[in-house]
Amino acid sequence: MKLWVIALCGLVACASVHAKATVWQPTAGHTQIPIWPGAVPDAQPVPGPETMTASKNLIAGKPWMAATNVARPTMTVYAPSGKNTGAAVVVFPGGGFEVLAMDLEGTEACHWLTSNGITCVLLKYRVPSAPYGWQCNCRSDDFVTPVPALEDAQRTMGLVRLHAKEWHIDPHKIGVMGFSAGGYLVAEISTRFKKRLYAPVDAADKESARPDFALAIYPGHLAFDNDTLNPNVKVSRDTPPTFLLQAEDDYVDGVNQSLVYYAALAKAHVPAEMHLYAHGGHAFGLRPGKFPISGWPKLAMAWLQTIGVVPR
């Protein structure tokens, strides 16, 4: 739990802000699509209106944008900019379930995916929500299921499969990628896809919510300090092939997050690939840095080729 106190300071409290906008908007030519046609299930109160905040806490020399008070989740579809491989990835930005790093761990990931012929679906899921509690500005249990966020993730997976033909997507090549708290969401939907957490709404909820592959980038909430797996993440042989990346000097979540999850995947005979680096810290996204870890996107693309998601 102490690690997430550090995370909150690093990502939010310690990041002096210098600008605020209303709500996050995609670039011209892209439209946010509400994922719920009516009332949002298990709606929770939020402390105020949705906002975008630019931080002075620079990553690779640039600020990052944080969305908070997201009560109406949306998805934004980014079509491939080159030859379409048929693959798609739903992206979960991180932010400790308090905010969403919409550019650093969202649109920038989509740019990389689309430039490699992969459709990107950027999910703006509900925050703040458990494990973070804005009422107390605390994290009473870092290992609980992020129910609103997981509901949003399950719903989005169904919607992408429902519209796969329309969006020129292979329904058997739809994966997920998440960073930090979003990496936890990757593990949750990778292990809890058989039953929706909400009452079915329409045809999208009859589609499978199981990702065909998963990428968890510096994930959190997966391992206790004694190196045991979060019991809310029940790995089985049905868990999709998974790519893991973390730095040994990640003092926000800790390298044991990837180590423990990888061990559980291996025990269940789930194909997995893990890359650990000596330096890199936390929350670097895909931005270039001075350490070798910033070259991880090439490793991830090679892995996607290895498992047959994209052609070599």
UniProtKB/TrEMBL annotation:
Quote the InterPro entries the UniProt record gives: AB_hydrolase_3 (IPR013094), AB_hydrolase_fold (IPR029058), GDXG_lipolytic_enzyme (IPR050300)
Write down the superkingdom of origin: Bacteria
Which regions span the lipid bilayer? none
Residues in the signal sequence: 1-19
Q: Which GO terms describe its molecular function?
A: hydrolase activity
What keywords were assigned to this record?
Hydrolase, Signal
Q: Where is the Alpha/beta hydrolase fold-3 domain?
A: 149-284
Q: Which Pfam families match?
A: Abhydrolase_3
Name assigned to this protein = Alpha/beta hydrolase
Organism name: Rhodanobacter glycinis
